[in-house]
Design brief:
The complex is a heterodimer of chains A (401) and B (413). Chain A is an alpha+beta fold. A 5-stranded mixed β-sheet of chain A has the order 1-5-2-4-3, sandwiched between helices. Chain A has a 5-stranded mixed β-sheet with strand order 6-10-7-9-8, with helices on both faces. Helix content of chain A is 44%, strand content 18%. In chain A, strand 8 (274-281) and strand 9 (289-296) form a beta hairpin. By secondary structure, chain B is an alpha+beta fold. A 5-stranded mixed β-sheet of chain B has the order 1-5-2-4-3, sandwiched between helices. In chain B, strand 3 (85-90) and strand 4 (95-102) form a beta hairpin. In chain B, helix 9 packs across helix 15 (390-400) and helix 11 (316-332) crosses helix 15. The chains are: A alpha+beta (401), B alpha+beta (413). At the A-B interface, helix 2, strand 4, helix 3, helix 4 and helix 10 of A face helix 2, strand 4, helix 4, helix 10 and strand 8 of B.
């Protein structure tokens, strides 16, 4: 296991961030949603400790976790003096979870309700359940972290849980960051004490089928009880480690991050075609998606909406950016970056994330990379990725009342 | 090494809860992070309630929307170019904007923001776009059981006409006029106070003064809440949905009341954190929901206690039974020492985190300012939490948390 230590003497707290190199992309296509369900089970007690949360709360700590398509990330914040409690708890659940039918059946219930609460019980909530399979035919990004469908969660078995644990939850497949008001010697001593005797296991090889590029526009229309038309356009983009990743990210800011952005100024305000329109990147490690998401104003057709969005890309590809368009989003990114570093938990998460994609210095290099992006890079993104007619369109049409 | 034994823990013995002091309306918190944050808060805007609250929100959201000579886009571009951000936030008792930016551009950034606020014209185009987008949001909200149930419980607890029950309607959106915006801005977006967080603490006064921002101390009148008119009925709102939303609620005393700190801990134990009884029973034991929470929201003259949960519609009776069961247990049984200690330590940890670092402190300080609390409030809170015992919890539970003092609203099928 790799340990990253970061000393921050200005806080009275300590955090641990433990990233496991496993996510929804590692799932069996017939048993999706499993990495996330597993994350829930990690709070159901471990071999030597019946409750994960209670001792931590007693030590004045707080914790949570998230799963995405690539990783599962667990984090704890507590008073610096009580750091050992965090390492005791994290190491015991890495050593051996307390597998039980009861915990599995309870958490299936919880996750099924989460599925409904987050994806089904509000308008447009299921967009990603449709958009992922539309955008990917081959790569495992074709399903959402919550799973393809509720039945996959319902059908999970205890033997799947044990196998998943044994394959992915081991020191070789994890990176731990201890950050805050703690010296290096103490961090390493305590880590060796609690994690030292856990069998190393093997690192996930992260081999996935590559998504082919088909240069084929695909679309899907959902007729649902939604108040107005909505459009989602997804474009295949580069992987996280590619230099152009930051060009996509900055382009999404140029398009929608402020009142001076192209989407807001032209399509929302000037032409009045959308109530809301934004662009963003999914930020996945493998080739992710550049997404445009909008709610159409009354009497605007889907054809018009799509044409106008593509029109903005064409304009950038043909005429380039205005003087300040790139510098302003870079400056805003710099401010955001500096603010991110005011939180010790944020720093710990970024350090682990950078390590996991192969560059522990990413957190320090990121501002420099952003500065180095040129308007030619943005042009290239538009020309080579957004104007190739290989995007995926999801449309929501309201049921006529 | 015995892994079953928990490492020793240290209890939090004290928290530095000191806020910035000032003779003026400018409060400064030092940080050395290369960035600054300036909150400009208008407590007078919080005096406006009821249907005019929409107009107040509209003024706030359009403060940076420019005029005939400078469009919102051009204005935003100037701020963006400096790496600046302007966020608007509207709370029950105040409205304000928060400017974030880079230290090196602090002077320019604040100058642009101040000029924008002075010169905003509320152009017809900006008003039209704003109204259209709010209506779109409203129509989406009206499809959500969570929105309907939250609205419903407020109406049951306080009455439909109470300020707390106010929600925007299509009619209010349509009828708000430009003249109202101009008048409301002139009347209520006055006499702000400022919270500055950053390294330029010695320059900030000059920067505000050169932009004619008045930092003289000003005494605000605390808004007097209307008396809630509570209904004893429950409410079922029928709505086709994948899940039901339930909200329970009761009116509890205000901050400063002798029972308030105890109620705050009672709320935590029942449903205020992941280790609460409702979460442990209804989520972690029975798997009936993704989350069940209780909350205690203080207003100037009372507070609202609520329980909220989204769940499978077939389980309504079971869910209600389990909630009432947890309430009965708090009324009839003494809480064990271990459970009480865990809750107290957790609460103190949460307090420690909220005072850790310049930016969290500035957030906390804003809440403090807007709530008219006494200087030593958090010190008292800290002491009070440490001294509360199991009998206290049982007593306040019996006094405030009876099934017959609670009302519920369900939205769903």
């Amino acid at each position: 296991m790799t340990l990253i230590h970061h000393l921050d003497p200005n806080t009275s707290l300590c955090v641990t961030n433990l990233l496991y190199n496993v996510g929804a992309r590692d799932e069996n296509p017939q048993k999706t949603g499993f990495a996330h369900l597993f994350e829930h089970l990690m709070f159901g007690g471990s071999m030597n400790i019946p409750s994960f949360d209670t001792p931590l709360q007693k030590a004045s700590g707080e914790n949570n976790a998230f799963t995405n398509n690539d990783i599962t990330n667990y984090y704890i914040t507590l008073p610096a003096e009580n750091i050992e409690t965090a390492l005791w708890l994290e190491s015991d659940r890495m050593l051996r979870l307390d597998f039980s039918e009861k915990s599995l059946s309870t958490q299936k219930g919880v996750v099924i309700e989460e599925f409904k609460q987050r994806y089904l019980n509000h308008p447009y909530g299921d967009a990603w359940l449709h958009l992922r399979p539309l955008s990917y035919t081959t790569h495992p990004y074709q399903w959402a972290t919550i799973g393809k469908e509720i039945s996959h969660v319902e059908n999970a078995e205890l033997s799947d849980v044990v196998a998943f644990f044994e394959t992915f939850y081991n020191p070789s497949n994890a990176v731990l960051c201890i950050a805050g008001n703690i010296q290096f010697e103490k961090a390493i001593t305590l880590t060796e004490k609690w994690f030292g005797d856990i069998p190393a296991g093997a690192r996930n090889k992260n081999n996935y089928l590559e998504e082919p590029i088909n240069y084929l526009r695909k679309e899907k229309t959902i007729v649902a009880a939604v108040p107005q038309k909505a459009i989602y356009m997804a474009f295949q983009m580069v992987e996280r480690k590619h230099t152009l990743y930051y060009a996509f990210d900055l382009l999404s800011d140029i398009l929608s991050r402020s009142d001076s952005s192209r989407f807001i100024e032209i399509l929302v305000k000037e032409k009045g075609l959308f109530n809301q329109l934004e662009a963003y990147v999914t930020g996945d490690i493998d080739k992710g998606l550049f997404v445009v998401e909008g709610k159409l104003t009354e009497n605007v057709s889907f054809e018009k909406a799509e044409e106008e969005i593509i029109g903005i890309f064409k304009d950038i590809a043909t005429n380039g950016l205005n003087d300040k368009e790139l510098s302003k989003v870079k400056n805003k990114a710099l401010t955001s970056n500096l603010f991110g570093k005011t939180s010790v938990l944020n720093k710990a998460m970024s350090l682990c994330y950078g390590y996991n994609i192969g560059n522990i210095d990413l957190v320090n290099e990121e501002t420099q990379i952003i500065k180095s992006i040129t308007s030619e890079d943005i042009n290239q993104v538009c020309q080579d990725y957004l104007l190739k007619n290989n995007h995926f369109v999801l449309k929501y049409h309201p049921i006529k009342k | 090494m015995n892994r079953t034994l928990a490492p020793n823990i240290k209890l939090i013995s004290g928290i530095n809860t000191h806020f910035p002091q000032s003779d003026t309306n400018l409060f400064k918190i030092k940080s050395e992070d290369g960035v600054f944050k300036l909150d400009i808060v208008f407590p007078n805007a919080g005096q406006v309630q009821g249907k005019n609250k929409f107009a107040i929100g509209m003024v706030l959201n359009l403060l940076m929307s420019g005029n005939e000579h400078q469009s919102s886009a051009k204005l935003a571009e100037e701020i963006d170019e400096l790496g600046g951000f302007v966020f608007k936030s509207s709370d029950f008792y105040s409205a304000g904007i928060t400017v974030f930016g880079l230290n090196e551009h602090i002077r320019k950034t604040i100058k642009i923001v101040k000029k924008a606020i002075d010169d905003v014209a509320f152009t017809a185009d900006e008003i039209a776009v704003y109204k259209r987008n709010r209506l779109s949001e409203l129509n989406i909200n009206l499809e959500k059981t969570s929105y309907l149930a939250s609205k419903g419980i407020n109406e049951l607890l306080c009455g439909k006409d109470h300020d707390i029950s106010f929600r925007t309607t299509e009619e209010i959106i349509d009828n708000t006029t430009r003249q109202e915006l101009i008048d409301f801005k002139a009347q209520y977006f006055t006499k702000p106070y400022f919270i500055f967080t950053g390294s330029e603490t010695s320059r900030i006064e000059d920067i505000l003064l050169e932009n004619s921002l008045d930092i003289n101390s000003f005494k605000y009148t605390a808004h007097k809440d209307k008396n809630p008119v509570r209904s004893t009925e429950n409410l079922i709102i029928t709505k086709e949905s994948a899940q039901n939303s339930i909200r329970y609620g009761a009116i509890w005393p205000k901050r400063g009341h002798e029972d308030y700190f105890k109620l705050s801990l009672l709320n935590l134990i029942l449903g205020g954190y992941f280790g609460s009884r409702l979460m442990k029973n209804i989520r972690e034991d029975k798997g009936l929901t993704y989350g069940i929470h209780s909350s205690l929201t203080p207003y100037n003259d009372f507070s609202l206690f609520k329980i909220s949960c989204e769940y499978n519609s077939q389980n309504t009776e079971l869910l209600k039974y389990e909630i009432v069961n947890e309430i009965d247990r708090l009324n009839n049984e003494l809480i064990g020492e271990e459970e009480l200690t865990v809750a107290k330590n957790y609460l103190l940890g949460a307090m420690l985190r909220s005072f850790d670092g310049a930016f969290p402190i500035s957030e906390k300080f804003k809440l403090f300012k807007d709530s008219n609390l006494t200087e030593d409030y958090y010190e008292q809170y800290f002491k009070a939490i440490n001294s509360i015992n199991a009998d206290d919890i049982k007593t306040v539970s019996n006094n405030y948390l009876k099934e017959n003092t609670l009302t519920y609203c369900i939205a769903g099928v």
